[in-house]
């Protein structure tokens, strides 16, 4: 059974089989006053930044729902989902046979737990946070009502600061009193790193980058990267994304260094290793940012091997490695292999014979709608930029000879026009051409400096390379529609 609340990923089997965990099994009975008999409720769990449906059951005549099996659930935070998608969380760890009772009037405040100390202390904490939230709302109202600079506003602000201190102290006390509780591990994930004062340089100055470097270096100090239960919480993935997307400079080389560090922190826990490797690899395989495919290639080459990627079958592993074979030769910085194709006169033209600072490989099709719009704009840019040392090696992708020649004549395409009429060249596969138009901008050595860009982006690059802002094209108008 499916519900729109959950996003199910089918590309990788990331929910570990429960059979291997078989002991006494789990038995979770939940009664929620206010839910109608025969209503459908769901048991779900977090996994990274997604939620997964595990089971569904009808509310019985006594108002209760029971989820049970002969196997144990992997530890983590789970969700009991009510009709209408309202839900509450529960801790599932060592104690997997327990009872929870509550009321739709206030799921947290009315929660009663039997047989699970983890959930008892969890809901004690949630009730505390609920009381803090109500007080904070009242203090914020006082703050907003008071005049700026008044004693009343200062008093309200101080009350809010005191509340924050109270929360910190409560968490500290919780960690002290419940050192072995799973929720203590969860709280530690959200605990911020305390940054010491920057040391002085010999000349008495301070390093302005110290705080950033220290924070990044110690970012995972409070997180047990070998505890796979954390994957099944809503907070762990946020830290991974923050480290990769916010704390790491957004260049492929820097991301690769951070990715390798993350993976190293997970060993030898196989489930944590699997999640980190899978998420980073998938994230950068599907990235639309130019050059980030280098991260995918690195991750696939280094970690998607038979002895490491145990969760991937041989067929999928083969496909991943084949994808790497295609992308690796066309990464930014790689020298594009030579192309020797026939021009409109039937003469072979070598791309390597072009002796210009910049060459654009333009793969297009005269029947392609996007090409019909892009090619005339590219022609305008070419006429302005060719005198600075810019050439275009334009390849007809579909090789319909008469349509190709007609389009060239009608638009006066005076760059190098070539085609692979007999489909003897494998550039379509080697250059990963699934749609047109496609562009590869090369330097004088025929190394790729930009790829899969549009004409406007190309004009910005050339304007920078040739130090001539006049080469920049105006954004293309979308016939009254918004640009995306």
Let me know the average pLDDT: 91
H/I helix tally = 13
Give helix and strand order, one letter per element, not per position.
EEEEEEEEHHHHHHHHHEEEHEHEHEEH
Number of domains: 4
Poorly predicted spans: 1-23, 480-484
Q: Cα-atom Rg, whole angstroms?
A: 30 Å
Which CATH architecture of the largest domain would you pick?
3-Layer(aba) Sandwich
Beta-strand content estimate: 15-25%
CA-based shape? elongated
What is the terminal separation in angstroms? Answer: 36 Å
**What fold name stands as the CATH topology of the largest domain?**
Glutaredoxin
Characterize the main sheet: 7 strands, mixed
Multimeric status of the protein: single chain
**CATH class identity of the largest domain:** Alpha Beta
E-strand count: 15
Structural class: alpha+beta
Helices, strands, pairings?
Blueprint: E1 26-33, E2 40-47, E3 50-58, E4 64-69, E5 76-81, E6 87-92, E7 97-103, E8 112-114, H1 117-145, H2 151-177, H3 182-190, H4 210-217, H5 236-247, H6 252-266, H7 270-285, H8 293-303, H9 314-327, E9 340-343, E10 348-350, E11 358-364, H10 369-385, E12 390-396, H11 401-411, E13 416-419, H12 427-430, E14 438-442, E15 448-451, H13 455-465
Parallel strand pairs: 1-7, 11-12, 12-13
Antiparallel strand pairs: 1-4, 2-3, 2-5, 5-6, 7-8, 9-10, 9-13, 11-14, 14-15
Short description:
Helix content is 38%, strand content 18%.
Explain what you see.
- This protein is of the alpha+beta class.
- The protein folds into 4 domains: 19-110, Sandwich (Immunoglobulin-like); 124-149 and 163-190, no CATH class; 210-330; 340-471, Glutaredoxin.
- It is 38% helix and 18% strand.
- It has 13 helices and 15 strands.
- The protein has helices spanning 117-145, 151-177, 182-190, 210-217, 236-247, 252-266, 270-285, 293-303, 314-327, 369-385, 401-411, 427-430, 455-465, and strands at 26-33, 40-47, 50-58, 64-69, 76-81, 87-92, 97-103, 112-114, 340-343, 348-350, 358-364, 390-396, 416-419, 438-442, 448-451.
- Helix 11 (401-411) links the parallel strand 12 and strand 13.
- It is elongated, with a radius of gyration of 30 Å.
- The two termini are 36 Å apart.
- The relative contact order is 0.06.
- Mean pLDDT is 91; it is low at 1-23 and 480-484.
């Amino acid at each position: 059974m499916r519900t729109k609340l959950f996003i199910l990923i089918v590309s990788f089997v990331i929910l570990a089989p429960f059979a291997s965990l078989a002991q006494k099994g789990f038995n979770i009975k939940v009664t929620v006053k206010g839910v109608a008999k025969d209503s459908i409720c769901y048991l779900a769990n977090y996994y990274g930044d997604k939620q997964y449906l595990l089971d569904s059951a009808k509310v019985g005549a006594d108002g209760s729902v029971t989820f049970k099996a002969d196997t144990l659930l992997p530890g983590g935070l789970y969700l009991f989902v009510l009709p209408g998608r309202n839900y509450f969380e529960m801790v599932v760890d060592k104690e997997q046979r327990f009872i929870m009772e509550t009321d739709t009037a206030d799921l947290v405040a009315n929660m009663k737990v039997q047989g699970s100390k983890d959930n008892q202390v969890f809901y004690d904490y949630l009730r505390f946070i609920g009381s803090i939230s109500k007080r904070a709302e009242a203090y914020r109202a006082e703050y907003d009502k008071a005049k700026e600079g008044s004693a009343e506003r200062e008093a309200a602000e101080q009350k809010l600061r005191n509340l924050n201190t109270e929360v910190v102290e409560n968490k500290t006390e919780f960690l002290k009193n419940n050192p072995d509780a799973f929720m203590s591990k969860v709280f530690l994930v959200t605990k911020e790193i305390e940054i010491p004062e920057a040391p002085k340089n010999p000349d008495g100055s301070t390093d302005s980058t110290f705080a950033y470097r220290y924070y990044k270096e110690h970012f995972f100090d409070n997180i047990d990267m070998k505890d796979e239960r954390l994957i099944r919480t809503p907070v762990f993935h946020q830290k991974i994304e923050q480290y990769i997307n916010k704390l790491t400079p957004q260049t492929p080389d820097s991301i690769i260094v951070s990715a390798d560090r993350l993976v190293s922190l997970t060993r030898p826990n196989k489930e944590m290793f699997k999640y980190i490797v899978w998420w980073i690899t998938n994230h950068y395989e599907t990235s639309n940012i130019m050059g980030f495919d280098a991260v995918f290639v690195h991750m696939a080459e280094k970690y998607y091997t038979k002895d490491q990627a145990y969760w991937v079958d041989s067929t999928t592993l083969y496909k991943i490695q084949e994808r790497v074979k295609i992308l690796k030769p066309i990464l930014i910085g790689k020298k594009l292999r030579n192309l020797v194709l026939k021009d409109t006169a039937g003469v072979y033209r070598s791309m390597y014979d072009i002796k210009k600072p910049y060459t654009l490989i333009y793969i297009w099709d005269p029947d392609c709608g996007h090409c019909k719009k892009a090619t005339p704009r590219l022609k305008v840019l070419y006429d302005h930029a060719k005198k600075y040392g810019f050439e275009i090696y334009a390849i007809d992708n579909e090789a319909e000879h008469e349509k190709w020649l007609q389009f060239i004549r009608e638009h006066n395409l005076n760059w190098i026009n070539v085609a692979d009429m007999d489909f003897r060249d494998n550039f379509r596969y080697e250059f990963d051409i699934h749609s047109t138009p496609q562009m590869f901008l090369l330097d004088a050595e025929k190394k790729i400096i930009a790829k899969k860009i549009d004409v406007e982006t190309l004009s910005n690059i050339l304007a920078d390379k040739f130090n001539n802002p006049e080469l920049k094209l105006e954004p293309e108008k979308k016939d009254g529609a918004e640009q995306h």
